[in-house]
Amino acid sequence: MAGERSGLRVAFVVANEGVEQVELSQPWAAVISAGGMAEIVAPKAGETQAMNHPDKGDRFPVDRTTRKARIEDFDVLVLPGGVANPDQLKMDRAAVAFLRAMFGAGRPAAVICHGLWTLVEVALVRERTLTSWPSLRTDIENAGGNWVDEVVVCRKGPNVLVTSRKPDDLNDFCVEMEDAFGSNRHEGR
User: Quick check: is 174 catalytic?
Assistant: First the structure.
């Protein structure tokens, strides 16, 4: 994300509990190392409890609540996974409204693993080619998405959308995310 990506304002939208730690921390580090500015946006003020699979991980401070998140304040959206994270996040009306607004404004997004459940809830996968943790395949296909088994950059739709399957994809995901965040083209895949 060097050069034109310096100063990019990135919203990491998570629930207050259940985000997979590596899916938050590794993309966060990529954003920061490229000169971007990252914020954790969550339903409640305070902290978010990250998870290392079923075990508790670190706690991270919440920078802004979903109720106070405005699309004018962010250039890009990242939705990390974790099984419990999207289940809680999709029940937060302010988070759902913020995601719809970000996509509607054409802001690039990057979504990891189980994070795609939130996009299914918000009806943002129809006619998009994307990936997720394999157990979400049927949900995505039932919502009109085209599921594939690889890291994907989809430019068909209102925004550039980068998706990955699992933590093992994070290196490739971060490379694709960095490239896509510097691009806001809508043609292709």
Answer: no
pTM for this model (two decimals): 0.93
Q: Does domain 3-181 have CATH number 3.40.50.880?
A: yes
Residue 14, judged by CB atoms within 10 A of its CB (0-12, 13-18, 19+), counts as buried
Residue ranges of domains in the chain? 3-181
Angle 181-184-189 from CA coordinates, rounded to 5°: 100
The catalytic residue among 114, 154, 174, 186 is: 114
Mean pLDDT value across residues 134-145: 97
Out of 113, 154, 174, 186, which one is annotated catalytic? 113
CB 144 within 8 A of CB 126: yes
Active site residue 114: yes
